[in-house]
């Protein structure tokens, strides 16, 4: 029987983009919707009220959740909230926004997860599919919430969905046709508490797949491969360094697929214009997905050749007096920042810091010793960063992103790089990583104008 919410009382918890989209979708589907948020004010309130969505602001009321027929969670709201736990104890179904939306999709889902590279892979996959003429949407944890894509979904639509651990921990029936696990390393330990819990959330991307579905895995990341064990889907691996017998690999200057029937060239490496060799992994993952979907190599190559990367992901901002400025504000965990550093051989001044989410800062010590001229520490993590790095590299502190850019440029050498690679969340100083990246770019622009 088709999923229906007609006439049911549904409480949506969290009024960020996903919650607002879910509330609007539920209202269109005939539900009696209440949207709950801890803030006293939320954006886009009037269109929601016009759809007869009740806004309950200033806190999540237990009675509102426990009297609902269904509770839908925005990914940014921790599921251990007392009101949510009370609803769960009463046996009320609790699902995430992507779970809700997926129940009404007519097209197939390509879900992308991993600790680093989700956005680049998702966008590039969408571009490859579009280049081949497929009807494609790209969203989820990037761009438009999945709930906004329901009404345009057809049996021919391919929905490329970036999926975070916050979203995956609240699924039930969500089933990707192709599930991609790019990599895995400790992250979001402020929310998941343990690496094991974080891994369990990520691994849920595979749990509803069938033997007609696909799992695309980074064969060089043992932890990522381990999370897929027990899944029923067919498997396609990719590896930038290993010589796989079958799968997507690099060979003679090309990304190729090795099959039982031979080797098919997919994308020449000279078509990849992304800063940082680790981003080739994302191109390979997108090519692996596209090969499953039937995208011809020329369409993959056209998409890659026209793709200069995403904002805030190893984004070359400008150059002044021989110093390049690179914005990798999306590097919000230790391993992501490590990959950023490893993209440069020497003379890096790294702007690092924010709200620490967990992970092993010791991983960055040797790369900083080898590659960095200095570190400029910002945000709440400054004392932690000084303690972790001051014996291997000069550590300076800045009270603002403006001061950090000024200091970093003063410390930089011609031919060097000022690299924003925070290894931390942004919420101590900014609304999100995007605002942090934009502020960095604004300050670089002011520096150039002076």
Describe the fold and architecture.
- It is a single chain.
- The chain has 17 helices and 20 strands.
- Helix 16 crosses helix 17.
- It folds into 3 domains: 84 residues, NAD(P)-binding Rossmann-like Domain (Rossmann fold, 3-Layer(aba) Sandwich), CATH 3.40.50; 207 residues, Mur-like, catalytic domain (UDP-N-acetylmuramoyl-L-alanine:D-glutamate ligase, 3-Layer(aba) Sandwich); 135 residues, Protein-Tyrosine Phosphatase, Chain A, CATH 3.90.190.
- Helix content is 33%, strand content 23%.
- It is an alpha/beta fold and 450 residues long.
- The strands form 3 sheets. Strands 7-8-6-9-10-11-12-13-14 form a 9-stranded mixed beta sheet. Strands 15-16-20-17-18-19 form a 6-stranded mixed beta sheet, with helices on both faces.
CATH architecture of the largest domain: 3-Layer(aba) Sandwich
The gross shape turns out to be globular
The beta-strand count equals: 20
Helix content: 25-40%
Attribute tags:
450 residues; alpha/beta; Rossmann fold; UDP-N-acetylmuramoyl-L-alanine:D-glutamate ligase; Protein-Tyrosine Phosphatase, Chain A; 3 domains; 9-stranded mixed beta sheet; 6-stranded mixed beta sheet
Summary, kept brief:
The protein is α/β, with parallel strands linked by helices and 450 residues long.
């Amino acid at each position: 029987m088709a999923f229906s919410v007609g006439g049911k009382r549904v409480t949506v918890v969290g009024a960020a983009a996903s919650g607002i989209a879910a509330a609007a979708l539920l209202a269109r589907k005939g539900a009696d919707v209440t949207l709950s948020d801890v803030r006293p004010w939320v954006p886009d309130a009037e269109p929601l009220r016009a759809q007869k969505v009740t806004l309950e602001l200033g806190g999540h009321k237990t009675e509102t959740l426990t009297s609902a027929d269904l509770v839908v969670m925005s990914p940014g709201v921790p599921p251990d909230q007392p009101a949510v736990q009370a609803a769960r104890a009463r046996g009320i179904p609790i699902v995430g926004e992507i779970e809700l939306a997926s129940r009404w999709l007519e097209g197939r889902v390509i879900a992308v997860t991993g600790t680093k590279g989700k956005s680049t892979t998702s966008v590039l996959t969408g571009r490859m599919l579009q280049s081949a003429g497929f009807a494609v949407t790209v969203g989820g944890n990037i761009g438009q919430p999945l709930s906004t894509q329901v009404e345009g979904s057809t049996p021919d639509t391919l929905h490329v969905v970036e999926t975070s651990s916050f979203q995956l921990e609240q699924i039930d029936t969500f089933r990707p046709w192709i599930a991609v696990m790019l990599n895995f390393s400790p992250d979001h330990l402020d929310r998941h508490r343990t690496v094991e819990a974080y891994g369990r959330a990520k691994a849920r991307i595979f749990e509803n797949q069938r033997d007609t579905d696909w799992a695309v895995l980074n064969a060089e990341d043992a932890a990522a491969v381990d999370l897929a064990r027990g899944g029923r889907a067919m498997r396609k691996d990719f590896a930038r360094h290993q010589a796989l017998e079958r799968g997507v690999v690099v060979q003679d200057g090309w990304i190729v697929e090795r099959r039982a029937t031979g080797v098919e060239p997919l994308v020449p490496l000279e078509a990849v214009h992304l800063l940082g060799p680790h981003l080739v992994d994302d191109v390979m993952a997108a090519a692996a997905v596209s090969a499953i979907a039937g995208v011809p190599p020329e369409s993959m190559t056209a998409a890659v050749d026209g793709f200069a990367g995403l904002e805030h992901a190893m984004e070359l901002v400008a150059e002044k007096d021989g110093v390049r400025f690179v914005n990798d504000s999306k590097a919000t965990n230790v391993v992501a920042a490590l990959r950023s550093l490893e993209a440069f051989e020497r003379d890096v001044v790294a702007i690092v810091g924010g709200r620490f989410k967990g992970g092993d800062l010791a991983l960055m010590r040797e790369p900083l010793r080898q590659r960095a001229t200095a570190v400029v520490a910002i945000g709440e993590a400054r004392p932690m960063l000084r303690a972790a790095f001051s014996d291997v590299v000069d550590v300076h502190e800045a009270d603002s992103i403006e001061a950090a850019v000024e200091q970093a440029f003063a410390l930089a050498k011609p031919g060097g790089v000022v690299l924003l690679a925070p290894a931390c969340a942004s919420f101590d100083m900014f609304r999100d990583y995007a605002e942090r990246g934009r502020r960095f770019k604004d300050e670089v622009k002011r520096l150039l104008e002076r």
